[in-house]
Amino acid sequence: MSEKRRIWILIDPLKCTGCRLCEIACSLKHHGLIWPSASRIQVYEPYPGAPVPVVCVQCHDYPCVNSCPFGALGIDEKTGAVVVYEDKCTLCGTCVQACPLNIPRIVPGLRSVQICDLCGGEPECVETCELVGYHALKIVSKPEGGVEKTLLVDPYYKSKEIYERIILGGK
């Protein structure tokens, strides 16, 4: 029996328009309503014209999963995505602190932490981004050996870099 390939969302911020349709698609999928602040993908745009989508990179060593004192986080064997066992989550925030970029989110009004679960292998955010033709999000095979952590860049610094380089025409 062969193991299904684990997927990963590759983000190209230079293709992102900041439309935030990915946030809408995610919140509709997971909450049944348009609630971008509860989306598991977030688009940050601290510098005008330089939006940066951010989503869990599914770290190879899963610091969020390993840090949870209540066993509220696990790993989907099919996709490799972090899954939240809502009945066990106490919103203590330990997973947020353990994440290299504080990606898990505690959203007022929800009973558990929000983190990308790759929609069971068919991420709505990616499908929506492709459907409208932006292609800022792409499904690829998950890299091995911790490579994904090299792509963990603070969205504020990434936005500033894009703004200075592309918008202002710098280096």
Describe it.
This protein is α+β, with helices and mostly antiparallel strands and 171 residues long. The chain is 25% helix and 13% strand. It has helices at residues 21-31, 63-67, 94-98, 124-131, 155-167; strands at 7-11, 42-44, 52-54, 73-75, 82-84, 137-141. Strand 4 and strand 5 (82-84) form a beta hairpin. Helix 1 (21-31) crosses helix 4. The mean pLDDT is 91.
Keywords:
globular, alpha+beta, 171 residues, Alpha-Beta Plaits, 5 helices
* Broad shape: globular
| Low-confidence spans | none
Class based on secondary structure composition and strand pairing: alpha+beta
What level of helicity do the residues show? 10-25%
Number of domains: 1
The average pLDDT value, as a whole number, equals 91
CATH class: Alpha Beta
The fraction of residues assigned to DSSP E strands is 5-15%
What is the tally of beta strands?
6
Largest sheet features: 2 strands, antiparallel
- What is the terminal-to-terminal distance? 50 Å
The CATH topology label is Alpha-Beta Plaits
Would you list the SSEs in sequence order as H and E? EHEEHEEHHEH
Specify the number of helices. Answer: 5
Spatial extent as radius of gyration: 16 Å
Major β-sheet strand ordering: 1-6
In short:
25% of the residues lie in helices and 13% in strands. By secondary structure, the chain is α+β, with helices and mostly antiparallel strands.
